Please model this.
Amino acid sequence: MTTKIIDITDKQKQELEELVNLLGSIKGRHTELVTVYIPAGFNLSTVTRQLEYEKSMAANIKSKQTRTAVTDSLERIIRELKNYKQTPPNGLAIFCGNISEKEGVQDIQLWFYQPPKQLNNRLYHCDQTFIVEPLKEILEIKDVYGLVVMDRREATIGVLEGKNISVLRKLTSGVPGKIKAGGQCLSSDTMVIEKNRGEIKIKDVRIGDLLEGIDLDTIKPVFNKCLNKWPNKKDTLLIITNNEHPSSHINSSHDHLFYTYNEKRKIVKKVASKLKEGNLLIGNEGKLIKILSIDEDTDNEELIDIEVENNNFFANGLLVHNSAARFERITEGAAKEFYRRIADGMKECFFNMTKLKGILIGGPIPTKEEFLEQGELVTALKNKIIAIKDLGYTDEHGLELLVEESGKDIAQQELIKEKKIIEKFFETLGKSPNRALYGIEKVKIALERGAVSILLISKKLPKNETKELEKMAENIGAETKIISTENQDGVQFYNITKGVGAILRFAIE
Model:
């Protein structure tokens, strides 16, 4: 899936800025300024009917001057709409009203504007000011950023376009969180042997306790440190009974592992669900203990899962396998596969997004770092990552928090982009002075000769001069860059060039 992002040119941006500033400066003497927004794809006939209705309602306005101004404005809008067979691809923004500053004098002006990006607003409004906020939002759309919030269980991929955040894809893994235990577990009353406290219930084990097990190579007793402990629940348990231990049975999950010998007298693991009456299990000092019976219990009692060093410990006199280590390997493998799915999703969403300026990543520690290390994200997208943030949310709210946390990083990207073009101009001017020049008259000559590759114009340059230069650049296919004065580099450019510079395709005399 490829998301198409449409950017606006510097020229379109400047034209829109001028329109917004003009409309925003107009203050009606009364509520006689009409604003109409028609969203992309909306039926014009419906709009016309609404405006006809509003015109009939305007007859109720008490003030004759206001009534006349509103009625005339609506009539002009309706007449102009008849010239359109359908709504333009990006919609229409319409502004009409009496802009005269003199009481009793009528000066009806009309603006029909086709925006460079789609309008999603449908609006009719009559007031003392025009509504220009939807157009301001278009101006605020400078760049496009990819967004990813994720943990081991969920990921949301989105895109930031101006102030708009869109969800492109959601992914789930089914992988439990990293701190959650595996399926292998024992009844909470199961007895284990702790080095300093003797025989205790597994529910009383503390992290750091030393639990008796054996060295699988020498069959000698060892004490293994408890590394972790989790409560758990199961719908059914197996009751495995023998006659060698005071607690002659052990309640375990179906997937718990026990130890036995194979035909070569080598210790091997065997899952509880595969055990049968008469099977021999390993007990203390390597002694073989015979299973007398195996029953199933459906009591939903509390279960405990622990993780120990060396992967084994004695439980009710039987040697059992450390369950969490196996679970950890399974979950680690599933997590890596999920990371690869996220990376694939990012590639499908972002790889062909030509206007993508950067990627923001959010998630808990250390999951996002694991993803970047293990997810096999293509290098081209890895190089576009500009911010990595610690977040606890992995849904749409997580995308919003990611954007909020990355505000400074995004702003810095804008400065870097502008800084690079200014640096390129001055570097060319210093190293190859015949391939760059500045000053409005010199630049005009270069434009007339078709020699300009990139035209740089400061925002401080008068509007009429800017428009003239942009038109000349457009005629020869030159690229135009508008340089702000909101940072030191932009100020320096204006002070040296007086607002106009150019990088040339070829040298001119």
In short: Residues 323-350 form the longest helix (28 residues). The chain has four domains: 10-140, 144-176+329-410, 186-323, 415-504.
